[in-house]
Amino acid sequence: MTPPQPPPASDRRAADRSEDDRAAVATFALTAVAAVVGVGLALWVGYHETPVPDPDAGFTTTYGPGWDGLLNQLAYFTTQSSLLVGVTSLLLALRLDRTSTAFHVWRLAGLIDIVITGVVFNAVLAGDDEPIGIAGMSDLLLHKVVPLLAVFGWVLFGPPGSRDRRRVGLALAVPLAYIALTLVRGAVVDWYPYSFFDVDAHGYGFVLAMVGAILVLGLLVAGVLAALDEPLSRWRGARRS
């Protein structure tokens, strides 16, 4: 009786690729769910909870509870970066082989922005009094879980395409546009989402210095993504071969 033969190497490679693709889809889907749930909880908080004004703020305007509080959650960089990561991750979960420049620009912008979110919040903004309940769950998802999942998914599954200078430039325009719109809106409505944007309390010199620091951080993140893009792409290819 002839002993069973092992499957051909080509079949094993195809099976490995299939398992890798399933893992990629699961990771991207989990990232999208975490981002959507986190943003949804943040919107719930904005609608239901009464904000506590910062006594050191240079403005007195508040939003919420109600629809104004819900919609104002969209003014936070955390919310916007999480939505970018969530949408692009969902698109990858639905189809992995996305090659369009538009997709890669938004994907790269989401990665840069969510890393900025994680670093700035956990290093600068997080205080000793952590939120609890629904607000605490939203905080955990948007400031810790989503940034970690986004980086984890990019390292393991890509997709590559972070070295293209045009894409990097367009991606960096997203946080720059956010900063410009936030400062203009803040001057009009007398409200700023973050204390380091509070022109009334700190003046334009301090605020512009902070803006410069954030942009430098964005450039560093983009540089790291670009530097790692090719070696990680080779590593992923070798893992699947």
Strand content range: under 5%
Domain count: the total is: 1
Stretches with pLDDT under 50, minimum 5 residues? none
**What is the ordering of alpha helices and beta strands?**
HHHHHHH
Instruction: State the helicity in percent bands.
Output: over 70%
Q: How many strands appear in the DSSP assignment?
A: 0
Would you tell me the structural class of the helices and strands?
A: mainly alpha
The residue-averaged pLDDT reads: 90
**What value does the Rg take, in angstroms?**
21 Å
Tell me about the largest β-sheet.
none
Cα(first) to Cα(last) distance is: 33 Å
Helices, by number, come to 7
Give the overall shape: globular
Describe the structure.
The chain contains 7 helices and no strands. The protein is mostly helical and 241 residues long. The protein has one domain. The relative contact order is 0.14. The mean pLDDT is 90.
Summarize the helices and strands and which ones pair or pack.
Blueprint: H1 9-48, H2 67-72, H3 77-94, H4 101-125, H5 133-157, H6 165-189, H7 199-240
Helix pairs in contact: 1-3, 1-5, 3-4, 3-5, 4-5, 4-6, 4-7, 6-7
